[in-house]
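Sharing a chain and its predicted structure for anyone who wants a worked example. Both blocks are below, sequence first, tokens second.
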Amino acid sequence: MQTHGKAKENPVRWGILSAANIGVKRVAPAIHNASNGKITAVASRNPQRARDLFAFAPDARIYGNYESLIKDPEIEAMYIPLPNSLHAEWAIKALNAGKHVLCEKPLATTAEQGANIMQAALSNRVLLMEAFMYRFHPQTIWTLEQVKADKIGKVKLVKASFAFDVRKRPHDIRLQSNLAGGSLMDVGCYPVNFCRAVFGRMPVTTTARVSASGAGEVERAMNAILDFEDGCFGLIDSSFELPARQVGEIIGEKGSITVPMPFTPGVVETEARMTIGDQTIVQHFSAIDPYQLEVEHFANCVRKGEQPELDLVETIENLATIESIYRSAGHRWPLS
């Protein structure tokens, strides 16, 4: 949906905190093209670079520091794509300033930190949502609807993987322990979220192993078994040392659903396959931008004063699961 050439009626005025890659390439264009949003300001410690990167939104104000953006009275909602270790600090500052906040995943580095952010949102009566854009894609919605409708019977096993190779980029922020990097924090959180969405609850126990290049380094690969009780399990893995790959599979007592590209479907046609007995149904989905669906949903909630679809209790439980995986593997991750 290309709407930036048309007048928008009462769009939510967004501020974007930093010129991080995900924001510049994915979320900012989504806000710009959204039917109900407008990029009002951007903050970056390199204003000229930000001006160049956000040239597609020439009316946006450029601030040279984050505090000025947060204090801007015109800003209603803020998108935070900062490194993981900075999410809590700046989300809380924005929430305390009365801004609604859409924060990149994972929301925080620990469940306790996530709870502090949530409390700031509740105390200031503003909205907060973790940015798992794949949850707004039609293929995810359809998949979860089939599970809820008992089409494949009681789900007993969820398998999910997400990997890509960053070995040629040794200075990538994903590999920096002081920025709360790691494959689980960056891409493994998607399989964790996927399992929680399917089962509707967090696992009671986890068993995990991780691979790190040395003490104090981020883990570059993770494998975990999540026990959801009653014979229900999640098998998940993530890696920074394998070719790009992702898949989601849900196995029930009557059938299964496979989603070949569950987490970053992109703006291309996608599909999901449901197999029941000897019958396979292939469900096709038209090309659509999940980031635009995400920001339009959040902006709509801002205008209507409604809570977002992605529940904060689920967010905190996912953070607790990530903690449990690291603890089970004996791996120290940033605790603040």
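Comments welcome. The first strand starts at residue 12 and ends at 17.
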